[in-house]
Amino acid sequence: MPKYPEITVQLVGQDSNAYDLLGICRRAMIKNGLSQSEIDKFTQEATSGNYDHLLATCLDWFDVE
Predict the structure, then answer these.
(1) Which residue has the higher pLDDT, 45 or 12?
(2) Which terminus of the chain has fewer Cβ atoms in its 10 Å neighbourhood, N or C?
(3) In sequence order, which residues have a C-beta less than 8 Å from that of residue 6 and are 6 or more positions away?
(4) What distance in Å separates the CA atoms of residue 35 and residue 17, rounded to the nearest whole number?
């Protein structure tokens, strides 16, 4: 179960650029009213590894389509 199952992000069919995927998730967090500290925590975790780690972090935090 993701940390925020009520936030759905559409990553399938998107440009596979890591910056684009990160932006999609960050915009979803802002739209859903998450705090800047929570957004920063996600960003730090998501960017602390390689591309596969970024995808895994997205899956851990959100409902991914």
Answers:
(1) 45
(2) N
(3) 32, 63
(4) 25
Q: pLDDT value at position 26?
A: 97
Alpha-carbon distance 34 to 16, whole Å?
Answer: 25
Tokens at 32, concatenated: 């859903």
End-to-end CA distance of the chain: 14
Q: At what angle are helices 51-61 and 18-31 packed, to 10 degrees? A: 20
Q: Would you say 25 and 62 are in contact if contact means Cβ atoms under 8 Å apart? A: yes
Q: Which residue has the tokens 């998107």?
A: 14
Extended strands (E) in 1-65: 4-9, 62-64
pLDDT tens-digit series, residues 22-57? 999 999 999 999 999 999 999 999 999 999 999 999
